[in-house]
């Protein structure tokens, strides 16, 4: 390459780069300027429109145009749209209906409906999202159709809109969408179904036998999250389902619902051949009210699977006093793991904090009992907590008593 | 032919090489910028109606363990944990690993949270130095503090992984502050592609000059001094124009150690953080690529430009030198360790594009750049280069640097606009020009020094002296007063 060609190349490079630089600089500065001008204008207009919009929303009758006379320019329409969208989030009933009517009057619903058939998926998403927030029932058929959109994000937004607008047709199309093969959509849709409350329980129970295998597990989760006692019989029957995942999630959902009627079946599930089912059953028993299942949980602490043992110990801790007694009984058992885990649980529950104080403040009988209990901790070589108490407890008598106990144990070891 | 002719030919040839290298390097940067621009616009459209609140409310959101490795962080640790407690996320636990601190890091935590010693059964999936004690707080049930023998950041993070109970973990620096919604934003890729996503990185921004109140960045402003502002521009370029582009090409090589979310099982599979390199974050991501590509597994390592982590950047040249020295040395160590992937088609875009790019431009770049600073003026002095060409080349070099920085500022302006004032924008634009006269050249020299240390097998952490967030507040106040 000759020097002249080189110089020409560099000149061209500078010219191209200079052009790009100018474009980038102008766009940067121009964008900032427009954003600031627009946000300033919108702030001012919002202050003008807000009292009128609130007067309309709180008024008994009259159309929106009587409160905010038109025609509105493009930027003003945007201000009104966002102010109304903001207002509708916090209201229900008649006020909500009046805002929905304003969206219709101003043609916003029609505008967004048009976006649902746009070629760009981001526009369809925008349309579905805004229609969901507008709470108008008119777009329900279009939103239901949108549940077949090839783009998962569009399906999710349509589901969200259907969930927000509600109604039986929305529940049915959402149940249909549980068959979605995209995992993210299925999760989001089941999430949305979970927010519908009692209205979704009946249709979901009816539809359940017809759901495909993939949709059953999210459906079981939704039944749990809806926390309806009417789902308990179905969930109990699912504890003997051939599908392992279904059994495990059913146990989990029964725990979430917290209906004590499920306790005997959950105790039985602790003997399930699949460890995830046993682990979930143990966890669920922990959150059920009442002392039922404590003996079974004690036995589960000797399970061959770590998660089951861990969940059983945690469940006993959650049971409160009766659970603590069961854990204390495990401290001098033959199963070393169970004893160690029980000690951990009791320690995390703060049981030993009270026992340590009893060592000096309790009646003679309580002192003996406290000494015995702490002695078991020493035997298990879990002296970290005691050493910490011996160093830092506020009461010098407690520090002395624990130090003596630890010294005796060290001497015995020596 | 006498020696003068040989020398002049050699200089000419080298200058031709410098020009070609320079054009290739900048074309790749410009290409990455356009890819990033497209990504930012798509991302903004996708998140225009963010459903992060739904993720927050959902029972199906994956729980996360936040692991904070702390060594001699008494100035910032309590603020950091306080900011973590305030995160918007449905279920998370905080594991602070005190990695053999010589200062009062542990004592500060003990008193601030009324920590009590506990015994916990946990699985030691990764080998670490001995744990001296575990502490839990009755005030904050999801907080665990681990006191262990000093073993370095990798060791501390591995210890945190062992103690974590959730399927995802987030590694954090003790001097960093993450924004309230950062976890919600970072977890989304895991929810969208649960089987494939193994790691997600967020953007790291410079906290110098910002006002920090109770562990939160409450007022964003640029620092007063030029050196941190140069780094603000550099971070924008690296994250918005670099990592975003690489992520789009499925070739993201680095998730900053200051803020990254990982799938625990994938990290345990590669043996956790490796303490044998100086940059454990780069090494981990490379190892994740290596193992997944070798096993022909579908996986995703992505960069999300929205979740923000604020961190202090060096305020003196000496601190900057130490930091950059370590980063570059760590990169060389990792490239050397994973050289089997280099130019190996089995490793796809990583083996054929990303690693060769790092080898040719990141490793050789400082040498070519520095030698170019010598040979081009030398050629001009010797009359081998005419003045016009010399000046043109100089203008081109500066214009490229300025364009890339301004392009990164544009990405920031059209997307997140964290620096809203005109004053800050002018400051960023002027630093985009000024950094080409000294700052960049010094960075190249730091890298050459790092290369030399790498060859000698030197390893050192290059500790960054923290001024602490209270002082950062002070600095912000001072700068506000000066402006008034």
Main sheet attributes: strand count, strand direction, barrel closure of chain B: 10 strands, mixed
Shape of chain B: globular
Instruction: Note the beta-strand portion of chain A.
Output: under 5%
* Count of helical regions of chain B: 16
Which parts of chain B are unreliable, with pLDDT below 50 for 5 consecutive residues or more?
Answer: 470-484
- What's the count of strands of chain B? 12
Mean pLDDT of chain A: 85
**Please, what is the average pLDDT of chain B?**
86
Assembly form of the protein: heterodimer
Report the count of strand segments of chain A: 0
Reported for the largest beta sheet of chain A, the result is: none
**Class of secondary structure makeup of chain A:** mainly alpha
| Major sheet: arrangement of strands of chain B | 3-4-5-2-1-6-11-8-12-7
- Helical coverage of chain A, percent range: over 70%
What overall geometry of chain A do the principal axes of the alpha carbons give?
extended
Radius of gyration of chain A: 33 Å
Helix content of chain B: 40-55%
Task: List strands and helices in order, with pairings.
The complex is a heterodimer of chains A (414) and B (484).
Chain A: H1 3-58, H2 64-67, H3 74-88, H4 93-105, H5 108-115, H6 121-134, H7 140-146, H8 152-165, H9 168-177, H10 183-194, H11 201-207, H12 213-226, H13 232-238, H14 244-257, H15 263-269, H16 275-287, H17 294-300, H18 306-318, H19 321-330, H20 336-348, H21 351-361, H22 364-379, H23 384-392, H24 396-413
Helix pairs in contact in A: 1-3, 3-4, 5-6, 6-8, 7-8, 8-9, 8-10, 9-10, 10-12, 12-14, 13-14, 14-16, 15-16, 16-18, 17-18, 18-19, 18-20, 19-20, 21-22, 21-24, 23-24
Chain B: H1 3-46, H2 52-57, E1 64-70, H3 77-85, E2 92-99, H4 105-113, E3 116-118, E4 131-136, E5 143-148, H5 153-163, E6 168-173, E7 177-178, H6 182-192, E8 197-206, E9 211-213, E10 216-219, H7 226-248, E11 259-263, H8 264-269, H9 280-294, E12 300-311, H10 317-337, H11 348-363, H12 365-381, H13 387-415, H14 422-434, H15 439-455, H16 469-483
Parallel strand pairs in B: 1-2, 1-6, 2-5, 8-12
Antiparallel strand pairs in B: 3-4, 4-5, 6-11, 7-12, 8-11, 9-10
Helix pairs in contact in B: 1-7, 1-12, 1-13, 7-13, 7-14, 10-15, 12-15, 13-14
């Amino acid at each position: 390459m000759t020097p002249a060609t080189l110089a020409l190349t560099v000149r061209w490079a500078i010219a191209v780069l200079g052009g790009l630089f100018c474009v980038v600089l102008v766009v940067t500065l121009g964008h900032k300027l427009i954003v600031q001008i627009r946000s300033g204008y919108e702030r001012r207009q919002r202050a003008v429109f807000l009292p009128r919009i609130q007067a309309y929303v709180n008024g008994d009758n009259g159309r929106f145009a009587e409160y905010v006379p038109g025609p509105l320019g493009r930027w003003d329409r945007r201000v009104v749209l966002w102010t109304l969208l903001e207002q509708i989030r916090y209201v229900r009933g008649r006020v909500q209906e009046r805002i929905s009517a304003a969206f219709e009057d101003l043609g916003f619903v029609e505008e967004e409906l048009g976006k649902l058939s746009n070629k760009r998926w981001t526009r369809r998403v925008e349309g579905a999202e805004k229609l969901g927030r507008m709470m108008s029932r008119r777009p329900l058929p279009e939103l239901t159709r949108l549940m077949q959109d090839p783009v998962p994000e569009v399906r999710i937004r349509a589901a969200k809109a259907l969930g927000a607008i509600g109604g039986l047709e929305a529940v049915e199309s959402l149940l249909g969408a549980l068959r979605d093969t995209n995992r993210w959509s299925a999760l989001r849709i089941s999430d949305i179904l979970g927010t519908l409350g009692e209205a979704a329980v009946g249709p979901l129970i009816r539809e359940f036998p017809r759901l495909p295998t993939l949709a059953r597990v999210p459906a079981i989760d939704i039944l749990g999250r809806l926390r309806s006692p009417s789902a308990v019989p179905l969930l109990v029957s699912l504890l003997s389902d051939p599908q392992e995942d279904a059994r495990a999630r059913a146990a989990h959902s029964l725990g979430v619902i917290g209906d004590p009627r499920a306790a005997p079946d959950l105790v039985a599930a602790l003997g399930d051949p699949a460890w995830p089912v046993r682990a979930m059953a143990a966890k669920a028993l922990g959150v059920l009210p009442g002392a039922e299942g404590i003996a079974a949980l004690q036995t589960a602490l000797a399970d061959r699977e770590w998660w089951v043992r861990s969940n059983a110990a945690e469940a006993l801790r959650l049971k409160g006093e009766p659970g603590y007694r069961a854990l204390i009984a495990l401290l001098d058992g033959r199963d070393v793991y169970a004893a160690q885990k029980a000690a951990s649980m009791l320690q995390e529950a703060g049981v030993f904090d009270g026992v340590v104080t009893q060592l000096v403040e309790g009646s003679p009988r309580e002192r003996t009992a406290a000494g015995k209990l702490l002695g078991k901790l020493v035997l298990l070589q879990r002296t970290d907590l005691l050493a910490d108490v011996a160093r830092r407890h506020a009461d010098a008598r407690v520090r002395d008593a624990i130090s003596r106990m630890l010294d005796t144990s060290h001497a015995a070891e020596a | 032919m006498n020696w003068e002719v040989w020398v002049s030919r050699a200089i000419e040839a080298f200058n031709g090489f410098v020009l070609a290298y320079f054009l290739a390097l900048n074309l790749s940067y410009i290409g990455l910028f356009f890819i990033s621009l497209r990504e930012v616009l798509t991302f903004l459209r996708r998140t225009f109606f963010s459903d992060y609140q739904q993720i927050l409310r959902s029972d199906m959101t994956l729980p996360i363990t936040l692991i904070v490795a702390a060594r001699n962080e008494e100035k910032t640790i309590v603020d950091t944990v306080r900011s973590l407690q305030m995160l918007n996320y449905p279920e998370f636990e905080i594991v602070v690993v005190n990695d053999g601190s010589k200062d009062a890091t542990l004592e500060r935590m003990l008193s601030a949270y009324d920590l009590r010693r506990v015994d916990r059964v946990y699985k030691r999936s990764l080998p670490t130095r001995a744990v001296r004690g575990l502490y839990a707080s009755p005030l904050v049930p999801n907080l665990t503090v681990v006191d262990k023998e000093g073993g370095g950041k990798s060791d501390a993070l591995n210890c945190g992984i062992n103690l974590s109970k959730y399927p995802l973990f987030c590694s954090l620096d003790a001097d960093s502050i993450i924004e309230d919604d950062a976890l919600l934003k970072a977890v989304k890729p895991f929810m969208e592609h649960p089987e494939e996503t193994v790691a997600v990185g967020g953007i790291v921004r410079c906290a110098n000059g910002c006002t920090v109140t109770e562990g939160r960045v409450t007022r964003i402003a640029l620092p007063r001094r030029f050196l941190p502002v140069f780094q603000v521009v550099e971070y924008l370029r690296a994250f918005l124009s670099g990592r975003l582009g690489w992520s789009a090409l499925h070739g993201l090589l680095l998730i900053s150690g200051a803020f990254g979310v990982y799938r625990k099982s994938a990290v345990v599979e590669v043996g956790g953080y490796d303490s044998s390199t100086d940059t454990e974050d780069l090494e981990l991501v490379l190892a994740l690529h290596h193992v997944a590509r070798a096993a022909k597994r579908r996986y995703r390592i992505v960069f999300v430009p929205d979740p923000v982590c604020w961190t202090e950047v060096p305020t003196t040249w000496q601190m900057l030198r130490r930091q950059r020295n370590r980063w570059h040395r760590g990169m060389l160590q990792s490239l050397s360790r994973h050289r089997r992937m280099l130019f190996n088609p089995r490793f796809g875009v990583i083996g054929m594009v990303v690693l060769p790019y790092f080898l040719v431009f990141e490793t050789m770049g400082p040498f070519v750049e520095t030698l170019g600073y010598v040979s081009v003026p030398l050629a001009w002095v010797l009359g081998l280069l005419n003045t016009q060409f010399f000046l043109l080349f100089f203008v081109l070099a500066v214009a490229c640097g300025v364009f890339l920085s301004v392009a990164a500022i544009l990405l920031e302006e059209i997307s997140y606009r964290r620096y809203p004032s005109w004053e800050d924008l002018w400051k960023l634009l002027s630093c985009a020009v000024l950094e080409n006269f000294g700052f960049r050249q010094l960075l190249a020299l730091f890298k050459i020094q790092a290369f030399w240390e790498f060859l000698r097998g030197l390893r050192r952490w290059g500790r960054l002296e923290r001024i602490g967030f209270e002082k950062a507040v002070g600095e912000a106040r001072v700068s506000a007063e000066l402006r008034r």
